[in-house]
Structures are given as C-alpha cells and as structure tokens.
Amino acid sequence: MPRIIFVEFDGTEHPVDASNGLSLMEAARDHDVPGIEAECGGVGSCATCHVYIDQEWVAVSGAADRVERELLEMVEGRCEESRLSCQIDISHEMDGLIVRMPEAQGF
Amino acid sequence: MQFDVVIVGAGHGGAQVAVMLRTQKFEGSIAIIGEESELPYERPPLSKEYFAGEKEFERIQLRPARYWDEREVTMLLGKRVVAVDPAAHTVATDGGETIGYGKLVWATGGHPRVLPIPGGDLPGVQGVRTRADADADAMKAASETAGQIVVVGGGYIGLEAAAVLNKAGKKVVLLEAQNRVLARVAGEELSRFYEKEHRDHGVELHLGVCVDAIEGDTRVTGVRLSDGEVIPADLVIVGIGIIPAVAPLIAAGADCANGVRVDRLCKTSLPDVYAIGDCAAHVNDFAEGAEVRLESVQNANDQANVVAKGIVGDEAPYHAIPWFWSNQYDLKLQTAGLSTGHDQAVLRGDPATRSFSVVYLKAGKVIALDCVNATRDYVQGRMVVSAGLEAGPEQLADIETPLKELLSV
C-alpha cells in the first residue's frame, strides 16, 4: 500500500495508506481528509477535488487530459501543479507522494 | 429515541447535512433515517458507471462505514417515516417507533413515477432510483439474456440507461411521449443532437408515442402503444420522473405544492422542520425568482450546507448556481444555470463536430448553457451566468471568442 501524504492549506498533514487502483480523491474521501469535496463523485465534472502535485511527481502521476485542463482553467488557486485528484489513479510508485490542497474548492 | 437533529432520507442531501454539521463542530446528537438498508451512496452512477458494472458499490458510497461511527451519526436504516407530529416534535416510522427531534431535516427525495396503465407493475418493469433497482435480479438477468429492452421516457435517466444497455450490446427501444427527448429540461438543438446520437448508435427511438399497456401474464413480454402496435420486451425500464416523497409533511399541515415549500433558509412552514433536495420547492435566484424543484446533486448538497450552517447559527440564504452533468456514450454534457423560461437559444459550435454548446437567453441575458464535450464553455459559462451577462447572439455564437472575454467588454 503506497503511503500518500495529503497536506491541507494550513500545513496539516494527513498520511494515508492508500489502495492501488482507487483514485487519489477516493483515498482522501475514504480516510476523511478534509478539503476535498468531490461533488460529482469522480467523473471529472465539478472541479471540487483540486490538488497540487509537485513537478517531480509528474512522471508517476501523469498529465492532465484536455477535459481536466479545461475544468482547471477557472478554479480558485490554479497553478502549474494543479490537478483533479479524481483523475489520478494510485499505483505503488506513488509511495511518499505529497498532495497539497488549495485554500478553497471550486470556481 | 430522541436526537437533536433527525434527518429523514439517506441520499446526497441527508448525508451532506450530517457531514457539514460535524464539519461545523456541531456536538449534538444526529440520526439519519433511511428507507433503504444501504449507507448513503451516490445515485448518479446508478444509470451510468454502476449500472454498466464499471464501479463496485463500495466505490460509490459517499463515506466509508466507519466515518458515520466515528462522527457519531446514528444510522436508522430500512425504516420509513410515515408521520410527523410537529407539536410534539416527533416522527413515527412504519415499524411503529416514535423518534423525537430538536430539528427535523426532510431530505427524502422522491419515488419514481410508475406507469399508470394496465401491467405497469408487472415483474420486469422498473425504475432506476435505488441500488436495488440497478441490482435487481430481473435487471441483471434480463439485461444479460434479454432480446430486447424497452426504455420508457427520454429524460436523462432513460437516455443514460439506453446508452449503457446499447454499449453492452443490447437491442434498445426508447419511447418518449413528447415530440423530442429532454423536452422538459433542454432546448430543441440539444434534443435533436441526442436523438441523432442514440439513433446512430443503434437505439430505436420513437417520439410522440403513448404507452397504453404493458403486456404479459407473470412477467413483461411487450409494450402496447396507443396505435395498437406491440413492441416485444423482456425488460422495461421506466424513467418518467419522480414524485416528491412528502405525504407525511402534507398530512402534518406543511405548506406543500410541487414538493414541500421552503424559504431561502430551507425552512418549511412547520416549526424546526427544514426540507432540502429533490423534494423541496424553493424560489431560486437562477430561475428569475420562480418557485422550482431541482433534482440534482448540486441542489441537494448546497441546500444541505445551508441547513447545517443555519442549525449552527450561521444563517445565509440559498444562492448557488445550478449545475448538472450527464454522460452518455463518449459525450460529456455539462450544464450551468437553468434554461427553463428562455426566450432565445444560441448555438455555439457545430453539433456535427460533437463538441458544441447551447447558450440560453431570457430578455437578452444569459441564463444557462448546455455544453457537450465543451468543458471550457461550461466553466466560463458558469461565470457568465453568475454575472448575468447580456450579450448578442452573434457574439455568443462566435467560438473564436472565449465566453469570459465577453465579461470584460
């Protein structure tokens, strides 16, 4: 089980032993990590599971597809590292991944 | 039994009230009374990913089971509230229990409308509203062995179910009483686009047809139309809307119309009784002040947040832009705002490219967008609707101009 560290905007860390195959959003939801809303349930429609993935992890996390990039264009706190956590599937290579969260979700 | 907050209904809205109360550090006791035996789960996948077998049930639960234990939310499942006594502040269940409340949140949603015709309750005829519906042995077995499946109703549920069954290789016939699909919720351009898509995929679509009876002795064998034609069917899926589940509130004297009426804080006319989600008739800022009842996750969640914050003393009126999604085949529809009452619809992009939007205006103001495989229009459209942008049809139709640029003009 890869250990993923979710970090709230205020710096509070939430280490989570996550299951392969689920999405980062599902791991956060199932471990009650605050700050991820995921209103659409993970189908890439609502942009309320916005997180930041550092550039060094991009090789593992992959890149956002067109729909995801477009959804992210208008979210609050958008930056180069922005991703939707429902679109990232967990793999064993993600052990140690740090997932930072924005101050607020949504547009 | 007595709880500070009793939530009736374990769907999106009911669950979110409990979640938000605990997030707001509410320390009182909370109970959720649910008619189904399941912990709260997402309903939209029932006609999409879950129905298609792409997601396990555990993956569509709104929270893992331990969450409700840890947060001390008492789950009273498999129970139906049959009466409310507003003076005594109690509800009665079908099992004869009396449960006291400080605040009551009515979040029951609705039950699928059934076909009021002979045979409408035959085995093999069913709605899609609960896990049990999507799981039903009849549904699974029939959709594996069925020669032909008839879907009654060309709304989102019917179209999504048809898309899933079609993708699974089934012969699907879809019947719609109106002269176009999605007639209640979208403009004609969108209807015609989805009709063509379903037909191109092989769904047999009949518009403007009335169903007179469901044929069969012990189980459905066919659907008889008003012109006498009988369409053979091994399974009939009915998606013709819901009836708000508010009978106990009506009996208790609550002001009810199409659903139970609530004010901007989601309070009913009964003291300490709130109502939210699919069953709540409310004046919506995005419907030009009209009273509406919205059947969406957005509305359930946002009204739940209004109630939870109100209970902890942080009252703020409901004001949230409506949004919605529907996935069919490889088409991702996203909508912002409410198109009901529009007097002009502008096509933005070419439907033949399978990526376009319909922009709805009323008195020159953008009130809603339906965006098909056009996420950028959707996210910018939310801003445009929220801002109440006034723009000409030529500007809105110009796909070279991003919608957000019209805001700064």
Helical residues, percent of chain A:
10-25%
Low-pLDDT runs of chain A: none
Helicity range of the residues of chain B? 10-25%
Number of contiguous helices of chain B: 11
Identify the CATH class of chain A: Alpha Beta
According to DSSP, the number of beta strands of chain B is 26
Shape call of chain B: globular
**How many domain regions of chain A?**
1
Profile the largest sheet of chain A: 5 strands, mixed
Structural notes for this entry:
The complex is a heterodimer of chains A (107) and B (409). Chain A has 107 residues and is an alpha+beta fold. Chain A has a single domain (3-105), classed as Roll (Ubiquitin-like (UB roll)), CATH 3.10.20. In chain A, 17% of the residues lie in helices and 19% in strands. A 5-stranded mixed beta sheet of chain A has the order 2-1-5-3-4. The longest helix of chain A has 7 residues, at 24-30. Chain A starts with a strand and ends in a 7-residue tail after the last strand. The model of chain A has no long low-confidence stretch (mean pLDDT 94). Chain B is α/β, with parallel strands linked by helices and 409 residues long. Chain B has helices spanning 12-23, 65-70, 131-135, 137-145, 156-167, 188-200, 247-251, 297-311, 375-387, 393-397, 403-407; strands at 2-8, 30-34, 73-77, 81-85, 90-93, 98-106, 110-112, 125-126, 148-152, 171-176, 204-207, 211-215, 222-225, 230-232, 235-238, 242-244, 256-257, 259-261, 273-275, 280-283, 291-292, 323-328, 331-337, 344-348, 356-362, 365-372. In chain B, the strands form 6 sheets. In chain B, strands 1, 2, 3, 4, 5, 6 and 19 form a 7-stranded mixed beta sheet that branches. Chain B has a 5-stranded parallel beta sheet with strand order 8-15-9-10-11, with helices on one face. Chain B has a 5-stranded antiparallel beta sheet with strand order 22-23-26-25-24. In chain B, helix 1 runs parallel beside helix 8 (297-311). Chain B is globular and about 60 Å long. The termini of chain B are far apart. The mean pLDDT of chain B is 95. At the A-B interface, helix 1 and helix 3 of A face helix 8, strand 22 and helix 9 of B.
